[in-house]
């Protein structure tokens, strides 16, 4: 089959690899119809996530048709059209049973390596390095889906591929980012990052009853999407000081909750600050450029919530602990527990409450994946989200 | 909290000394007290009663014996005290040698007998000191591991799975097979890289249903080992804390190198991985595989895991 493989920093290729096989009794094989390139694929592309190897198949957002199931999979059959959550979760450990699917205790066969860096291992993730399991990804013609009796859900005909594939990661992740804010009527929510997750976090904040939503980014075309589709207010940090702007917009209080949907490859309006973290990251002295996180903590109203769904890999420098502690902030974090959200969010799409595919800017065949990575990386051609059609 | 107490394993404590230090201590005590309480008869018996110097030297020797006795009976640094006895013996032999040269007749015969007796004691002391040292080094070589995992299953389920020893190779990466000969005895085969094989027989020495299992290798194996697994209900309804204690004495030589290879450079990490797979099997039914570690349980595969590789041109 054809698959998109990581070939080294800033290099992906579509190569021929062997078809996936059933390896465990609860596996399914899915013939992929639509798969997406994610902002966190760019972290792999740029080489910031350790334990990638040349030839690893990328992709953790995909959907398609079940073509084969292992003997223990009874809820799915060949022919079912399914979308697959990106965290691999067993459904039986105590984390899974508490709904914490992205920290499943059984799905990372390389947990020993992850423990050395993170203390405890999170769940395995498709196409996301040997640190998180060494699973082949879904930017390919076929994918093996472990624990297929727990993760994938069937997609009804009236929901399009473009809508459904958003349920693999970005929509549930954005939604969880908003849900962690405990939004109450009258509240103002600020979102750092107008990428797919940031936009869907802002849209979800609206769904959950936020009175005002403020989106912060530096690309005018992405901020325009936030204004047009979500009726959000926007701040371009290349033009104004974010903290001043937020204080002015909230009469000195600060937003009630701040969502970091940026993660480890943030940018900063201040060239010196950006250069400082960029240099440290390039030398691998720190793994993150946590501008959004620092700003979110400083901006948040006292007693408010900082919700982190942007991806981080390692250690953060200059974390404003004084502000965080002295102002009674709460931080909530997590890779999204996607399995918890797929069904309710599918129902919201079916009811017409939201169409998350408004973030999609590009659709192209799988063989053009290298081009898709490039324009998404360089934000060319007003690129927000690239779907690959197989 | 049920703390895992030490598994008793005499064979892992190294060779037992022929004359235990406490016996040497009692001998020292007897000699010391005798010499101090009755220096006259002791001097006559040993054949040095004609020397005025003996009156001064004998109590000193008695005090030295008492010192050795106290040291040996205290049980601390037995090897050091045993060697101190050897040094004392050497001193006594020197003095006796000088006395032998000066004397004649019946007295000379008594000094000769005393010298012979002291030489015998010296031999025992040397042997004891050597053995005590060996035992201490053997104990220092024994590797002890204590590792635990929480499994979302009842103690009874976890116990039942482990008690069927033939299940162990399903999650212990270095085990090729375990054959249960009967309810207590089993035959274990471990295989490492490069076809090295180590086999041993083990027996269950304590079995507390749903609580713990203690086993050890049978005497005579090249790799003495012992272990105990306890199944403790985890607080807050979270299943079972499975606590494993392992002890083994890697031998020297070629077998030792094979064992070291099988157990890897980080035996602790390997046991942790084994326990993680035990949890996987109990909670999900299987050891989970990925394309990066397709053989699930093979350590070698895990170390050498490779991503998808391009197909050879012939198969495209
Ligand atoms: Zn993603
Ligand atoms: Zn789980």
From TrEMBL, chain A:
Its cofactor is Zn(2+). Transmembrane segments: none annotated. Residues 8-388 form the Enoyl reductase (ER) domain. It comes from the Bacteria. The keyword Zinc applies. Pfam families: ADH_N, ADH_zinc_N. Keywords: Metal-binding, Oxidoreductase, Zinc. PROSITE patterns: ADH_ZINC. One of its GO terms (molecular function) is oxidoreductase activity. Belongs to the zinc-containing alcohol dehydrogenase family. PANTHER family: DEHYDROGENASE, ZINC-CONTAINING, PUTATIVE (AFU_ORTHOLOGUE AFUA_2G02810)-RELATED, ZINC-TYPE ALCOHOL DEHYDROGENASE-LIKE. This is Threonine dehydrogenase-like Zn-dependent dehydrogenase. It comes from Micromonospora violae.
TrEMBL record, chain B:
PANTHER family: POLYKETIDE CYCLASE/DEHYDRASE AND LIPID TRANSPORT SUPERFAMILY PROTEIN, POLYKETIDE CYCLASE_DEHYDRASE AND LIPID TRANSPORT SUPERFAMILY PROTEIN. It comes from the Bacteria. Residues 286-316 are annotated as: Disordered. Residues 151-276 form the Coenzyme Q-binding protein COQ10 START domain. This is Putative membrane protein. It holds the Pfam family Polyketide_cyc. Residues 292-304 have a biased composition (Polar residues).
């Amino acid at each position: 089959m054809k698959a998109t493989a990581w070939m080294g920093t800033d290099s992906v290729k579509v190569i021929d690899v062997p078809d996936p096989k059933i390896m465990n009794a609860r596996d399914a094989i899915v013939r992929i119809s639509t798969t997406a390139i994610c902002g966190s694929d760019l972290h792999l592309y740029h080489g910031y996530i350790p334990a990638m190897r040349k030839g690893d198949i990328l992709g953790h957002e995909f959907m398609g048709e079940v073509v084969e199931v292992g003997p223990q999979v009874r809820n799915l059959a060949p022919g079912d059209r399914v979308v697959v959550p990106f965290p691999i979760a067993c459904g039986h450990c105590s984390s899974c049973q508490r709904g914490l699917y992205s920290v499943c205790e059984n799905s990372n066969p390389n947990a020993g390596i992850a423990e050395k860096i993170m203390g405890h291992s999170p769940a395995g993730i498709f196409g996301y390095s040997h640190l998180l399991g060494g699973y082949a990804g879904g930017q390919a013609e076929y994918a093996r889906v472990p624990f297929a009796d727990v993760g994938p859900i069937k997609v009804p005909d009236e929901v399009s591929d473009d809508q459904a594939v958003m349920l693999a990661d970005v929509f549930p992740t954005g939604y969880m980012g908003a849900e962690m804010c405990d939004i109450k009527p009258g509240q103002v929510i600020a979102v750092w990052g107008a990428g797919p997750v940031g936009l869907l976090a802002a849209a979800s904040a609206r769904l959950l009853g936020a009175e005002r939503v403020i989106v912060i980014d530096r690309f005018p075309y992405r901020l325009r999407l936030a204004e047009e589709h979500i009726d959000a207010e926007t701040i371009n940090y290349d033009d104004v000081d974010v903290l001043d702007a937020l204080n002015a917009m909230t009469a000195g209080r600060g937003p009630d909750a701040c969502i970091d949907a940026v993660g480890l490859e943030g940018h900063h309006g201040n060239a010196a600050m950006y250069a400082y973290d960029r240099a440290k990251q390039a030398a691998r002295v720190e793994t993150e450029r946590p501008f959004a996180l620092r700003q979110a903590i400083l901006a948040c109203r006292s007693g408010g919530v900082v919700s982190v769904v942007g991806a981080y890999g390692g250690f953060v420098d200059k974390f404003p602990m004084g502000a965080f502690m002295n102002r009674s902030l709460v931080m909530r974090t997590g890779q999204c527990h996607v399995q918890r959200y797929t069904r309710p969010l599918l129902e919201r799409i079916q009811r017409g409450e939201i169409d998350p595919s408004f973030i999609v800017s590009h659709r192209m065949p799988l063989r053009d994946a290298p081009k898709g990575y490039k324009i998404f990386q360089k934000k060319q051609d007003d690129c927000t989200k690239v779907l690959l059609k197989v | 909290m049920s703390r895992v107490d030490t598994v008793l394993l005499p064979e892992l404590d190294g060779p037992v000394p022929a004359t235990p230090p406490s016996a040497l201590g009692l001998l020292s005590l007897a000699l010391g007290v005798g010499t101090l309480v009755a220096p006259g008869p002791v001097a006559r018996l040993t054949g040095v009663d004609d020397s005025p110097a003996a009156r001064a030297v004998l109590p000193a020797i008695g005090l030295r014996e008492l010192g050795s006795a106290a040291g040996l009976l205290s049980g601390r640094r037995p090897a050091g005290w045993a060697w101190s006895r050897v040094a004392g013996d050497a001193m006594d032999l020197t003095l006796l040698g000088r006395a032998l040269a000066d004397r004649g007749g019946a007295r000379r015969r008594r000094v000769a007998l005393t010298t012979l007796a002291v030489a015998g004691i010296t031999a025992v002391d040397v042997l004891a000191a050597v053995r005590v040292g060996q035992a201490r080094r053997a104990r220092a070589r024994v590797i002890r591991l204590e590792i635990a995992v929480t499994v979302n299953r009842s103690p009874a389920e976890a116990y039942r799975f482990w008690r069927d020893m033939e299940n162990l190779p399903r999650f212990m990466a270095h085990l090729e097979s375990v054959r249960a000969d009967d309810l207590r005895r089993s035959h274990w085969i471990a295989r490492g890289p490069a076809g090295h094989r180590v086999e041993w027989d083990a027996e269950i020495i304590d079995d507390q249903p749903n609580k713990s299992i203690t086993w050890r290798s049978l005497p005579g194996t090249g790799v003495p080992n012992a272990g105990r697994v306890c199944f403790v209900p985890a607080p807050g309804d979270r299943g079972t804390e499975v606590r494993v204690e392992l002890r083994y004495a890697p031998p020297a030589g070629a077998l030792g190198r094979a064992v070291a290879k099988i157990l890897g450079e980080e035996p602790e990490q390997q046991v942790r991985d084994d326990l993680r797979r035990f949890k996987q099997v109990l909670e999900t039914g299987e050891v989970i595989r990925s394309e990066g570690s397709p053989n699930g349980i093979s350590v070698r595969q895990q170390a050498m895991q490779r991503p998808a590789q391009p197909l050879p041109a012939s198969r495209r």
